[in-house]
Amino acid sequence: MNNVIIDSVTTPEFVMDYASFGNGEQAFVLLPGLSLLPVTPMAKAVAMQYRKFHKDYKVYLFDRKRDVKMGYTIAQMAQDTATAMRSLGIKNAHIMGCSQGGMIAQIIAANHPELVSKLVLCCTAAAPSKMAEKVLGNWIKLAQEGDVAKLNRDVFAHIYSAAFYEKNAQSFALAENLGSEQDLKRFVALGSACQDYDSRELLAHIQCPTLVVGSNIDNVLSGESSIELAQALQCKLIMYDEYGHAAFDEAPDLHDHLLEFFQER
After folding, report:
1. Which terminus in the chain has less CB density within 10 A, N or C?
2. Which pLDDT score is estimated for 212?
3. What is the SS3 assignment for 10-21?
């Protein structure tokens, strides 16, 4: 993937890293979920995963801003991402937010409608479920204790289906010790933001065409969260039965569904 560009947006308030790839005119923004490590260093792998979009779309993959501190809210993440999009001249974009990225995407769509033409919300929620409170609480505890390997194992086991986890067990084992002390502090701050998030009053302000994608075996935010979100938005819903919270990585037909949704008039 020789057309992958990794760069950053610098403003007086923050620096945000991003990657871009693809040759099309339509902007397609990817907002990933909570992770221990930044996603832009993995941009080439993401570009390969999204190769069906290269011809007709210019894809942007945004990290959270650098230098995250405790108290950084989802609303602030959304505002900073919107500012970064404007700095790059992005508007009328198709935005796909996954997990925490979906929380950010909801606020961008509600507060900055000129930036969003179509919205995809994958395995996300408008407010934390009881399941989410328990799972996120445990992840934050493990990060605070500095147990990188145990945290990574628990994250992998929760976000992927059992079949996918077993199939890729060797790769997960190689990755379980990745993460520095600074990465752990950043994870605690970003994870804590999910615990205080509630966009339910904003949903009525989302007017663009929206697709919700969820999983009935989502062991992080719960499948019910995706169903409730689609009902509140009165939009199309795709629910998977065999893929986990990271159905956006597991489901082989998801990109075909996205292309169909993007091409609808």
Report:
1. C
2. 98
3. ECCCCEEEEEEE
Please name the residues in contact with 77: beta carbons below 8 A apart, sequence gap of 6 or more.
64, 65, 104, 193
Dig out the tokens for 6 from the structure.
């990794």
pLDDT of 1 above 60: no
What dihedral angle (degrees, nearest 10) is formed by the CA atoms of 132, 248, 215, 97?
50
Q: Is 98 helix (H, G, I), strand (E, B) or coil?
A: strand
Helix (H) or strand (E) holding 25: none
pTM of the entire structure? 0.97
Instruction: Tokens 């008039």: give the residue.
Output: 265
HSE at residue 99, side-chain half, CA atoms within 13 A, is 25
- In this model, does residue 246 exceed pLDDT 70? yes
H-state helical runs in 127-199: 130-145, 148-159, 162-167, 169-175, 181-195
Q: Are strands 15-21 and 236-240 parallel, antiparallel or unpaired?
A: unpaired
pLDDT digits (tens, 9 = 90+) for 55-101: 999 999 999 999 999 999 999 999 999 999 999 999 999 999 999 99
Collapsing DSSP to helix, strand or coil, 49 comes out as helix
Torsion angle of the four alpha carbons 171, 183, 84, 57, in this order, in degrees rounded to the nearest 10: 0
